[in-house]
Design goal:
Largest sheet: 9 strands, mixed
Radius of gyration: 18 Å
Strand content: 15-25%
Helix content: 25-40%
Shape: globular
Number of helices: 10
Structural class: alpha/beta
Order of helices and strands: EEEEHEHEHEEHHEEHHEHEHH
Strand order of the largest sheet: 1-2-3-5-4-6-7-11-12
Protein backbone atom coordinates (compact mmCIF):
# COMPACT_ATOMS: atom_id res chain seq x y z
CA UNK A 1 0.00 0.00 0.00
CA UNK A 2 1.48 3.34 -1.05
CA UNK A 3 0.52 6.89 -0.13
CA UNK A 4 0.88 10.42 -1.41
CA UNK A 5 0.67 13.18 1.20
CA UNK A 6 -0.35 16.83 0.98
CA UNK A 7 -0.49 18.72 4.27
CA UNK A 8 -3.73 20.48 3.28
CA UNK A 9 -5.54 17.38 2.03
CA UNK A 10 -6.32 13.85 3.16
CA UNK A 11 -3.73 11.23 2.30
CA UNK A 12 -4.34 9.28 -0.89
CA UNK A 13 -3.48 5.58 -0.59
CA UNK A 14 -3.51 2.74 -3.09
CA UNK A 15 -4.15 -0.95 -2.41
CA UNK A 16 -3.17 -3.63 -4.91
CA UNK A 17 -6.07 -6.07 -4.66
CA UNK A 18 -6.50 -9.16 -6.87
CA UNK A 19 -6.76 -7.84 -10.42
CA UNK A 20 -7.40 -4.20 -9.52
CA UNK A 21 -5.66 -1.21 -7.93
CA UNK A 22 -7.93 0.58 -5.50
CA UNK A 23 -7.74 4.04 -3.95
CA UNK A 24 -8.83 5.47 -0.64
CA UNK A 25 -8.45 8.77 1.18
CA UNK A 26 -7.51 9.07 4.84
CA UNK A 27 -8.01 11.98 7.22
CA UNK A 28 -6.05 12.23 10.50
CA UNK A 29 -3.92 9.12 10.09
CA UNK A 30 -2.20 9.97 13.37
CA UNK A 31 -5.48 9.08 15.12
CA UNK A 32 -5.54 5.46 13.96
CA UNK A 33 -6.50 3.24 16.87
CA UNK A 34 -7.44 6.17 19.12
CA UNK A 35 -11.16 5.96 18.54
CA UNK A 36 -13.49 4.41 15.99
CA UNK A 37 -12.57 4.92 12.35
CA UNK A 38 -15.34 6.29 10.12
CA UNK A 39 -15.35 4.23 6.90
CA UNK A 40 -17.16 5.94 3.99
CA UNK A 41 -18.38 4.25 0.80
CA UNK A 42 -19.71 6.39 -2.08
CA UNK A 43 -22.55 5.71 -4.52
CA UNK A 44 -22.44 4.80 -8.21
CA UNK A 45 -20.85 7.50 -10.34
CA UNK A 46 -19.26 9.33 -7.41
CA UNK A 47 -15.92 9.15 -5.58
CA UNK A 48 -14.33 9.34 -2.14
CA UNK A 49 -14.17 13.13 -1.97
CA UNK A 50 -17.94 13.65 -2.13
CA UNK A 51 -17.80 13.12 1.64
CA UNK A 52 -15.54 16.15 2.22
CA UNK A 53 -18.27 18.46 3.52
CA UNK A 54 -19.56 15.86 5.98
CA UNK A 55 -16.00 15.11 7.14
CA UNK A 56 -15.40 18.83 7.76
CA UNK A 57 -18.35 18.83 10.14
CA UNK A 58 -17.00 15.96 12.23
CA UNK A 59 -14.69 16.62 15.20
CA UNK A 60 -11.32 17.81 13.94
CA UNK A 61 -9.45 14.73 15.15
CA UNK A 62 -11.83 12.08 13.81
CA UNK A 63 -10.03 9.32 11.89
CA UNK A 64 -11.81 8.88 8.54
CA UNK A 65 -11.24 6.67 5.49
CA UNK A 66 -13.22 7.20 2.27
CA UNK A 67 -12.73 4.44 -0.25
CA UNK A 68 -13.12 4.61 -4.03
CA UNK A 69 -14.71 1.65 -5.76
CA UNK A 70 -13.40 0.16 -8.99
CA UNK A 71 -14.16 2.30 -12.06
CA UNK A 72 -14.61 5.31 -9.77
CA UNK A 73 -12.31 8.12 -8.69
CA UNK A 74 -8.68 7.12 -8.73
CA UNK A 75 -9.35 3.37 -8.59
CA UNK A 76 -8.61 1.36 -11.72
CA UNK A 77 -11.35 1.03 -14.40
CA UNK A 78 -11.38 -2.78 -14.25
CA UNK A 79 -14.49 -4.47 -15.73
CA UNK A 80 -17.10 -6.05 -13.45
CA UNK A 81 -19.92 -8.53 -14.00
CA UNK A 82 -21.68 -8.34 -10.64
CA UNK A 83 -22.03 -6.18 -7.56
CA UNK A 84 -20.08 -8.95 -5.81
CA UNK A 85 -16.92 -7.42 -7.28
CA UNK A 86 -17.54 -4.23 -5.29
CA UNK A 87 -17.86 -6.31 -2.13
CA UNK A 88 -14.69 -8.25 -2.99
CA UNK A 89 -12.77 -5.02 -3.51
CA UNK A 90 -13.96 -3.54 -0.25
CA UNK A 91 -12.91 -6.65 1.66
CA UNK A 92 -9.43 -6.22 0.17
CA UNK A 93 -9.36 -2.59 1.30
CA UNK A 94 -10.54 -3.53 4.79
CA UNK A 95 -7.79 -6.11 5.06
CA UNK A 96 -5.14 -3.69 3.76
CA UNK A 97 -6.18 -1.08 6.33
CA UNK A 98 -6.41 -3.57 9.20
CA UNK A 99 -9.85 -2.20 9.95
CA UNK A 100 -11.40 -3.12 13.32
CA UNK A 101 -14.38 -1.71 15.22
CA UNK A 102 -15.24 0.98 12.68
CA UNK A 103 -18.41 2.91 11.92
CA UNK A 104 -19.29 1.99 8.33
CA UNK A 105 -21.27 4.48 6.23
CA UNK A 106 -22.43 3.52 2.76
CA UNK A 107 -24.56 5.41 0.25
CA UNK A 108 -26.78 3.79 -2.40
CA UNK A 109 -24.86 1.00 -4.20
CA UNK A 110 -21.99 1.68 -1.81
CA UNK A 111 -24.26 0.68 1.07
CA UNK A 112 -24.95 -2.67 -0.61
CA UNK A 113 -21.21 -3.24 -1.03
CA UNK A 114 -20.69 -2.28 2.62
CA UNK A 115 -23.21 -4.91 3.76
CA UNK A 116 -21.34 -7.49 1.71
CA UNK A 117 -17.99 -6.55 3.23
CA UNK A 118 -19.23 -6.27 6.81
CA UNK A 119 -20.87 -9.71 6.56
CA UNK A 120 -17.62 -11.23 5.33
CA UNK A 121 -15.36 -9.45 7.84
CA UNK A 122 -16.92 -9.78 11.31
CA UNK A 123 -15.19 -7.43 13.70
CA UNK A 124 -14.29 -4.85 11.09
CA UNK A 125 -17.37 -2.79 12.01
CA UNK A 126 -19.26 -2.12 15.21
CA UNK A 127 -22.15 -0.24 13.60
CA UNK A 128 -23.35 0.57 10.06
CA UNK A 129 -25.22 3.51 8.57
CA UNK A 130 -26.83 2.66 5.23
CA UNK A 131 -27.93 5.82 3.44
CA UNK A 132 -30.71 5.04 0.98
CA UNK A 133 -29.23 1.64 0.06
CA UNK A 134 -30.17 0.12 -3.28
CA UNK A 135 -31.81 -2.94 -1.76
CA UNK A 136 -35.09 -4.27 -3.12
CA UNK A 137 -37.57 -6.65 -1.44
CA UNK A 138 -36.31 -10.24 -1.00
CA UNK A 139 -38.47 -11.57 -3.83
CA UNK A 140 -36.68 -9.33 -6.33
CA UNK A 141 -33.50 -11.36 -5.86
CA UNK A 142 -35.33 -14.60 -6.64
CA UNK A 143 -36.12 -13.44 -10.17
CA UNK A 144 -33.99 -14.55 -13.15
CA UNK A 145 -30.84 -12.43 -13.39
CA UNK A 146 -30.72 -9.48 -15.75
CA UNK A 147 -28.52 -10.36 -18.76
CA UNK A 148 -25.16 -8.64 -18.85
CA UNK A 149 -24.55 -5.94 -21.43
CA UNK A 150 -27.62 -3.81 -20.76
CA UNK A 151 -26.94 -0.12 -20.15
CA UNK A 152 -28.75 2.46 -18.07
CA UNK A 153 -29.33 5.89 -19.72
CA UNK A 154 -26.47 7.19 -17.53
CA UNK A 155 -24.18 5.66 -20.16
CA UNK A 156 -25.13 8.57 -22.43
CA UNK A 157 -24.24 11.37 -20.04
CA UNK A 158 -21.84 14.14 -21.00
CA UNK A 159 -18.24 13.04 -20.43
CA UNK A 160 -16.16 16.07 -21.46
CA UNK A 161 -15.83 19.44 -19.78
CA UNK A 162 -13.62 22.46 -20.31
CA UNK A 163 -12.87 22.65 -16.58
CA UNK A 164 -14.23 21.62 -13.18
CA UNK A 165 -15.80 25.07 -12.88
CA UNK A 166 -17.59 24.56 -16.20
CA UNK A 167 -19.00 21.31 -14.82
CA UNK A 168 -20.20 23.12 -11.68
CA UNK A 169 -21.94 25.78 -13.76
CA UNK A 170 -23.56 23.19 -16.03
CA UNK A 171 -24.91 21.09 -13.13
CA UNK A 172 -25.84 23.76 -10.58
CA UNK A 173 -29.44 24.11 -11.78
CA UNK A 174 -29.96 20.57 -13.10
CA UNK A 175 -31.49 17.55 -11.38
CA UNK A 176 -30.27 15.84 -9.35
CA UNK A 177 -27.27 18.11 -8.71
CA UNK A 178 -29.38 21.18 -7.92
CA UNK A 179 -30.13 19.70 -4.48
CA UNK A 180 -26.42 19.45 -3.59
CA UNK A 181 -25.04 21.90 -1.05
CA UNK A 182 -22.88 24.24 -3.15
CA UNK A 183 -19.52 23.23 -1.68
CA UNK A 184 -20.45 19.56 -2.05
CA UNK A 185 -21.20 20.15 -5.74
CA UNK A 186 -17.81 21.83 -6.16
CA UNK A 187 -16.13 18.86 -4.46
CA UNK A 188 -17.98 16.42 -6.71
CA UNK A 189 -16.88 18.24 -9.85
CA UNK A 190 -13.34 19.09 -8.72
CA UNK A 191 -12.45 15.55 -7.69
CA UNK A 192 -14.67 13.74 -10.20
CA UNK A 193 -12.72 14.85 -13.29
CA UNK A 194 -9.32 13.93 -14.68
CA UNK A 195 -7.38 15.30 -17.65
CA UNK A 196 -8.86 13.98 -20.89
CA UNK A 197 -7.06 11.14 -22.60
CA UNK A 198 -6.46 13.24 -25.73
CA UNK A 199 -5.12 16.18 -23.72
CA UNK A 200 -8.08 18.45 -24.49
CA UNK A 201 -10.11 19.40 -21.45
CA UNK A 202 -11.36 17.08 -18.74
CA UNK A 203 -13.33 13.84 -18.55
CA UNK A 204 -15.21 12.00 -15.81
CA UNK A 205 -13.20 9.71 -13.56
CA UNK A 206 -16.16 7.32 -13.64
CA UNK A 207 -16.71 6.77 -17.36
CA UNK A 208 -20.39 6.91 -18.36
CA UNK A 209 -20.27 3.39 -19.80
CA UNK A 210 -19.14 2.05 -16.44
CA UNK A 211 -21.83 3.96 -14.55
CA UNK A 212 -24.40 2.71 -17.04
CA UNK A 213 -23.35 -0.91 -16.43
CA UNK A 214 -23.90 -0.75 -12.67
CA UNK A 215 -27.63 -0.07 -12.42
CA UNK A 216 -29.13 -2.87 -14.58
CA UNK A 217 -27.46 -5.67 -12.57
CA UNK A 218 -28.54 -4.35 -9.16
CA UNK A 219 -30.64 -7.40 -8.26
CA UNK A 220 -28.29 -10.06 -9.68
CA UNK A 221 -27.18 -11.23 -6.23
CA UNK A 222 -29.39 -14.02 -4.94
CA UNK A 223 -27.50 -14.09 -1.62
CA UNK A 224 -28.24 -10.45 -0.73
CA UNK A 225 -30.55 -11.23 2.18
CA UNK A 226 -28.29 -14.03 3.44
CA UNK A 227 -25.70 -11.28 3.92
CA UNK A 228 -28.26 -9.02 5.58
CA UNK A 229 -29.31 -11.74 8.02
CA UNK A 230 -25.70 -12.61 8.83
CA UNK A 231 -24.92 -9.20 10.31
CA UNK A 232 -25.00 -9.17 14.10
CA UNK A 233 -24.30 -5.47 14.68
CA UNK A 234 -26.57 -2.41 14.86
CA UNK A 235 -27.57 -1.14 11.41
CA UNK A 236 -29.24 2.23 10.84
CA UNK A 237 -31.17 2.39 7.55
CA UNK A 238 -31.64 6.01 6.48
CA UNK A 239 -34.31 6.49 3.83
CA UNK A 240 -35.10 9.51 1.67
CA UNK A 241 -38.55 10.48 0.47
CA UNK A 242 -40.44 7.90 -1.65
CA UNK A 243 -40.16 8.00 -5.43
CA UNK A 244 -42.73 10.13 -7.21
CA UNK A 245 -44.45 7.94 -9.86
CA UNK A 246 -45.47 11.05 -11.78
CA UNK A 247 -41.83 11.75 -12.69
CA UNK A 248 -40.96 9.87 -15.87
CA UNK A 249 -39.09 7.72 -16.76
CA UNK A 250 -38.09 7.54 -13.06
CA UNK A 251 -37.55 9.82 -10.11
CA UNK A 252 -33.79 10.17 -9.46
CA UNK A 253 -34.37 11.95 -6.15
CA UNK A 254 -36.62 9.30 -4.61
CA UNK A 255 -35.52 6.41 -2.42
CA UNK A 256 -34.67 3.02 -3.99
CA UNK A 257 -34.75 1.34 -0.57
CA UNK A 258 -37.40 -1.24 0.31
CA UNK A 259 -39.21 0.20 3.35
CA UNK A 260 -39.09 -3.18 5.10
CA UNK A 261 -35.30 -3.47 4.90
CA UNK A 262 -34.40 -2.39 8.44
CA UNK A 263 -36.59 -5.13 9.94
CA UNK A 264 -34.58 -7.78 8.06
CA UNK A 265 -31.40 -6.95 10.02
CA UNK A 266 -30.99 -8.56 13.44
CA UNK A 267 -30.46 -5.12 14.97
CA UNK A 268 -31.91 -2.79 12.35
CA UNK A 269 -33.43 0.67 12.82
CA UNK A 270 -35.38 2.57 10.20
CA UNK A 271 -34.94 6.34 9.92
CA UNK A 272 -36.99 7.93 7.12
CA UNK A 273 -36.65 11.58 6.11
CA UNK A 274 -39.66 12.71 4.10
CA UNK A 275 -37.96 16.01 3.26
CA UNK A 276 -34.62 14.62 2.00
CA UNK A 277 -33.61 13.13 -1.33
CA UNK A 278 -31.54 10.14 -2.37
CA UNK A 279 -28.49 12.43 -2.41
CA UNK A 280 -28.64 13.23 1.29
CA UNK A 281 -24.83 13.05 1.92
CA UNK A 282 -24.26 15.89 -0.55
CA UNK A 283 -27.60 17.61 0.04
CA UNK A 284 -27.19 17.95 3.80
CA UNK A 285 -23.60 17.24 4.94
CA UNK A 286 -24.36 18.62 8.40
CA UNK A 287 -27.12 16.05 8.90
CA UNK A 288 -24.79 13.34 7.61
CA UNK A 289 -22.16 14.30 10.15
CA UNK A 290 -24.81 14.42 12.90
CA UNK A 291 -25.92 10.88 12.06
CA UNK A 292 -22.32 9.62 12.17
CA UNK A 293 -21.64 11.29 15.51
CA UNK A 294 -24.88 9.86 16.86
CA UNK A 295 -23.72 6.34 16.11
CA UNK A 296 -20.32 7.02 17.67
CA UNK A 297 -22.04 8.36 20.78
CA UNK A 298 -24.06 5.14 20.94
CA UNK A 299 -20.77 3.21 21.04
CA UNK A 300 -19.61 5.28 23.98
CA UNK A 301 -22.79 4.40 25.86
CA UNK A 302 -21.92 0.74 25.47
Amino acid sequence: MTATIDSDQPQLHFTDAPGVRLAHFEWHAERRGQGPTVWLVHATGFHGRVWDQAVRRLPADRHVIAIEQRCHGRSAPVPFDSWRRFGDDQVAQIDACGLRGAIGVGHSMGAHALVQAASRRPGAFRRLILVDPVMAPPEAYRQPPVPLGQLHPAAQRKNRFDSPQAMVERFADRAPYAVFQRDALVDYCTHGLRPADDGNGWQLCCAPEHEGQVYPIARNMAETYDLVHALDIPVLVVRARPMDPAIKPWDPLGSPTWPGLAAEFRHGRDLPFADKTHFLPMEDPALMAELIEGEIAALDKG
